[in-house]
Structures are given as C-alpha cells and as structure tokens.
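Deliverable D2.4 — example input (structure tokens):
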C-alpha cells in the first residue's frame, strides 16, 4: 500500500535537497510540486518501522514530518494527474482513454472494471490475430512439406526411370510404365522430350519398340 510523509521544513534546518536525499535512501520519493513523499509499505506495522529509521536519519535536521497511509487532501490533484499520465500509452493500444480518464476522476471502481474490460477485449483481439498467424504458418509448413514429398517422389521416379533407360539392350514402354511409377501420359511426354533432345532413341526390335540412351 502507499504511505505518505508530509515534510515541514525550517529555515533553521538543513536544505530541502538534503532531506530529499535521506527520504530517497529510506525508500520514499518526492511528489512533484508538493512537500510530500510517497513510498510502498506492506502494512501499518512496516510504516512504523520505516518511521523509526527515518526519525533517526532526520534527527538534528530541524524538520517536522507527518506520516499517513492516505494521501493528504491537497495532494490529490497532483496524484490524480500522475495517474492520468499512466494512461498515455493506452490510447496507442486502442483503449478509450477519454472515457477511462473521466471514470478515474469520478468513479475509480467503474474505472477499474471498464479498464479491465477494454484490456481483455484487446488481449482477445491480439490472441485471435496471433492464433491466425500460427495457423497460417502451420498450414504453410504443411503445404511445403507436401510439395517437398511430391518433389522427392518425382525425383525418385526420374532416377528410377533413368536407371531403366540404361539397361543393356534397351527397355520397352511397357517395362518403363510398370517399373517407373509414372502414368502413361507422363511417361509418353518424358520419352518424347528425351527423344527430341537426343538423349534417347527408339529402336525396333522384332515386334517391340525399345528405348535406349542416345
């Protein structure tokens, strides 16, 4: 919880800068524009312990101080401004800061509920976008894997048929069709391309046409 210490300086005492240094060392930070310091404590017992240490540190500095677990009335405006400043980045995240600022000033409980609601909505939006990105990435990887498998299968078929073309005495279309795994249309196109490129030639062997490498 927040703890506040109102400091009353004396012209007979140490400079405010010296007091600020000691307060900082004890875990209290100055509220801008106010002779007020704030810090975090677990409970009133911890505040008492901190005040005991602070009392010793400030001894002889001619300053008076008033501890409290609630903000002094004249500091509420400053603290409210600081709280509003904490929402500066919220507008960039798409939150309705105009509405939230008004609620913060008039009804902190509703502010908390509305802020949580808006944050939850934004988180759900971000989750939906990220889940879509992950899903699309997984689909892309799956597609790439399928394409790789198809490509490797075609490469194996091509390697197999190339080996068959190298058989001594040549090989028939029927043998190529049975052994290569290519359908007749694919095989016919491949043989035509190889013949046209001079890598393969067709020879008549009795009643059969055999293909031998050029």
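Example output (designed residues):
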């Amino acid at each position: 919880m927040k703890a506040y210490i109102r400091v009353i300086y004396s012209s007979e005492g140490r400079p405010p800068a010296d007091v600020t240094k000691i307060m900082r060392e004890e875990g209290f930070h100055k509220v801008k524009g106010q002779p007020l310091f704030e810090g975090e404590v677990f409970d009133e017992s911890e505040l008492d312990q901190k005040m005991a240490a602070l009392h010793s540190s400030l001894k002889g500095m001619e300053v008076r101080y008033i501890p409290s677990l609630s903000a002094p009335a004249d500091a509420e405006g400053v603290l409210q401004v600081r709280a509003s400043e904490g929402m500066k980045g919220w507008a960039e995240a798409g939150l309705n800061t105009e509405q939230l600022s008004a609620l913060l000033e008039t009804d902190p409980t509703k502010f908390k509920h509305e802020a949580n609601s808006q944050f939850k909505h934004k988180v759900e939006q971000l989750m939906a976008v990220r889940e879509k990105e992950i899903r699309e990435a997984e689909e892309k990887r799956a597609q790439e894997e399928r394409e790789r498998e198809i490509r490797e299968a075609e490469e194996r078929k091509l390697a197999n048929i190339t080996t068959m073309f190298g058989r001594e005495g040549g090989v028939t279309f029927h043998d190529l069709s049975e052994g290569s795994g290519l359908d007749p249309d694919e095989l016919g196109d491949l043989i035509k391309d190889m013949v046209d490129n001079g890598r393969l030639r067709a020879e008549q062997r009795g009643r059969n046409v055999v293909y031998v490498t050029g």
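Residues 108-165 form the longest helix (58 residues).
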